[in-house]
Amino acid sequence: MKSLLTLAILLSGIGTVVALSEPPRDPPRGPYQAPLLPRLEMLRVLGAGQRSLVTDYYWLQAIQAAGRGSESKDPTRYLDLFYYADLVTDLDPKFHKVYLYAGNTIPTNLGRETWVNTVEARRILEKGVKNFPDDANLRLYLAYNLSYFFSEYAAAAEHLRIAATLPNATKFVPEFASRMLAFNRRFDAALAMVESFRDNETDPQLRQVFEDRIKEIRLEQVLVKVDDAITSFKKREGRMPTAMSELTAKGDLPGIPADPLGGYIGFDPDGKSYSSMSHSRLRPPEFDKKLQQQQDQQDAHNNTP
Predict the structure, then answer these.
(1) Which of 97, 150, 298, 302 is buried most deeply by CB count within 10 Å?
(2) Are the C-beta atoms of 68 and 28 separated by less than 8 Å?
């Protein structure tokens, strides 16, 4: 009798899956159409066993959607994966690997760094962070999404700051987090975080790595002030300053800045400041490129009649 009951439950679950499954779709010939999925409210009335079976079914559909996308050149090829993954994580918010898999697969590069489906990937990753706030990898992937696709550097920096303190954070997360915080001029937060890692580190070599990063953050703090002074001078005078002394003479800087690395501070003909001890900056080159693109767009908008 018990075996018959078990079989009946299993058949009922299979019947539910069949009833809720989407009929085959023809290849798209027009605008993208999302897969026809059942309403979440209807699925939530299922018993625990049936809901688990349905969740696994749609997870398999998500994997198959990703497989179909890899064989297509259509810009929307991974959008099906988003809708399946969204439904799966609604049914089971603790289905951890769905967030990681979908969040990193959905964005699609059309070539020359032209990306689509980034909003959908962001929604999945934000959903993952909401359900797994102590997962460093999810915060890392979301930070990348926010910074690279949306230029939301401040939000990305905050996720990285949190990720750097979590148990499953990889060793490069504190480095990336401090870089992002410094880029967003959150120097106090960057210094506090790195100093905390230094104070709790017993390995002499790693302690020295954190000491060096503290100096780099303080250097960036100085260089940002010089950058701002140069920008202010150019707007007022209509030209580049000829030397650091001109910035101090005009009041854009209170004095010749000291170099935390022991060298001297200068600036290139294009107006970017540097240290004689290190010509690299904490801000990655791609950030400068994005900021310049944003500035060019803003200038074009302001100059439009």
Answers:
(1) 150
(2) no
